[in-house]
């Protein structure tokens, strides 16, 4: 119960200095809530402990790797093109904008884009632009966007200002309501808001668990919300961190296969020297069986509520292995899954003013009793998918 006492005295907005219950309609119950329940998702706890991001003011933000759009694409025509061809089919026409100059990286020819047909991926161009020599364009030859050409006092063309992308994330809201019908409970809660009812805590943990599952296994989609606005559904970690994925049967997992997969995530220059492998019991046991002499017990983490084992790879890189008995469990069919996290490139993103909060007294005025709501809104910020990884034992 030490944690409960500490939580009640340290958390802002809960230990009320006066009994006026209307003053505390929206107390924040998020601060250090993870300490109260070791059965919360370890994945969510880690994200929250790592996060130093500013809250998002808008309900949508772009993935970091999409902030810098692609600048190149390739010619897509088996026979190539003659030096006087003005219609060029490419792999991705959305890279370019009308009025931009592109450069042939093989022949150094400059081409001016005068029209784009995205449905056929065809560029209409002026060849040998700005005194360059028109040349034969080979299939798969790389074309680079060199930027806009504008004369003095010229008008910028109406065109796409940012490369369209399907990769995005958003802030997802979840809430729980609960009613207090007994008069005694209602009276106690009204005049003693410094105490957090047990049901309030249970609802808060329930929301966090839902968040953890959505952040891991959510699928991208776009729908129309009840208010008529577009509602975006975030893609979870498993959808975006698959560039370094390992899928094999438990019997087929070998030490060579394991460290080959793990080392791959350490190769990118953005990678950190140590990572965390969050997994279910199936993955943890399989790793222990093939690498028992390469792991060591690092202690029990009180905040996460789990023991930590260190796996040392041949390169000297290390991975902290931590089981998440809630998110990776047989109840969800995920006990044979795991995620390799580079902690410097993943974080939780909250919507401004929507960290986990407790809204009291949302019932109608004529209703006898009381109804409260717990709500929050957050999303996942993931950078450099190649430094992370996923493992699935079939």
Element layout with pairings:
Elements: H1 2-10, H2 42-50, E1 60-61, E2 72-74, E3 87-89, E4 100-104, E5 110-117, E6 122-126, E7 142-148, E8 169-170, E9 172-180, H3 183-191, H4 198-217, E10 221-224, E11 230-233, H5 237-240, E12 245-248, H6 255-264, E13 274-279, H7 281-290, E14 295-301, E15 306-312, E16 318-323, E17 337-341, E18 346-350, E19 357-359, E20 370-382, E21 389-393
Parallel strand pairs: 12-21, 13-16
Antiparallel strand pairs: 1-8, 2-7, 3-6, 4-5, 4-7, 5-6, 9-20, 10-11, 13-17, 14-15, 15-16, 17-21, 18-20, 19-20
Tell me the β content: 25-35%
The N- to C-terminal Cα distance equals 41 Å
**What's the arrangement of strands in the largest beta sheet?**
12-21-17-13-16-15-14
Write down the secondary-structure element order: HHEEEEEEEEEHHEEHEHEHEEEEEEEE
Can you give a write-up of this model?
There is one protein chain. Residues 1-24 and 189-194 have low confidence and may be disordered. 18% of the residues lie in helices and 29% in strands. It has a seven-stranded mixed sheet, covered by helices on one side. It contains seven helices and 21 strands. By secondary structure, the chain is an alpha+beta fold. The chain has two domains: 1-68 and 168-394; 70-148, Beta Barrel (Elongation Factor Tu (Ef-tu), domain 3).
Features:
21 strands, 7 helices, single chain, flat, Elongation Factor Tu (Ef-tu), domain 3, alpha+beta, six-stranded antiparallel sheet
């Amino acid at each position: 119960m030490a944690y409960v006492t500490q939580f009640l005295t340290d958390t802002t907005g809960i230990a009320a200095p006066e009994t006026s219950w209307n003053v505390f309609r929206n107390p924040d119950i998020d601060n250090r809530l993870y300490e109260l329940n070791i059965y919360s998702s370890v994945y969510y706890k880690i994200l929250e402990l790592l996060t130093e991001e500013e809250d998002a003011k808008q309900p949508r933000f772009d993935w970091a790797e999409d902030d810098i759009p692609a600048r190149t694409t390739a010619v897509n025509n088996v026979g190539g093109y003659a030096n006087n061809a003005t219609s060029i089919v490419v792999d991705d026409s959305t890279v370019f904008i009308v009025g931009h100059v592109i450069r042939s990286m093989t022949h150094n020819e400059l081409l001016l884009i005068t029209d784009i047909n995205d449905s056929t991926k065809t560029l209409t161009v002026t060849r040998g632009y700005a005194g360059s020599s028109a040349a034969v364009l080979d299939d798969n030859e790389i074309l680079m966007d060199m930027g806009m050409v504008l004369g003095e006092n010229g008008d910028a063309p109406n065109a796409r200002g940012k490369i369209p992308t399907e990769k995005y994330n958003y802030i997802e809201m979840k809430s729980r309501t609960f009613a207090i019908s007994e008069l005694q409970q209602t009276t106690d809660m009204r005049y003693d808001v410094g105490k957090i009812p047990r049901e309030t805590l249970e609802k808060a943990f329930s929301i966090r668990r839902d968040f953890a599952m959505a952040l891991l296994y959510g699928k991208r989609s776009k729908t129309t919300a009840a208010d008529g606005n577009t509602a975006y559904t975030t893609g979870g970690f498993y959808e975006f961190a698959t560039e370094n994925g390992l899928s094999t049967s438990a019997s087929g997992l070998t030490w060579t296969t394991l460290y080959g997969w793990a080392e791959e995530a350490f190769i990118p220059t953005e990678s950190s020297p140590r990572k965390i492998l969050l997994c279910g019991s199936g993955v943890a046991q399989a790793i222990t069986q093939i690498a028992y002499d390469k792991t060591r017990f690092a202690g029990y983490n009180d905040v996460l509520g789990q023991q930590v084992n260190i796996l040392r790879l041949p390169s000297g890189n290390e991975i902290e292995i931590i089981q998440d008995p809630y998110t990776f469990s047989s109840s969800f069919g995920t006990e044979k899954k795991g995620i390799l996290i580079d902690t410097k490139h993943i974080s939780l993103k909250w919507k401004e003013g929507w960290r986990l909060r407790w809204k009291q007294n949302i019932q109608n005025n004529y209703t006898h009793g009381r109804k409260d709501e717990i709500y929050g809104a957050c999303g996942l910020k993931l950078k450099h998918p190649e430094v992370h990884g996923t493992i699935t034992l079939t």
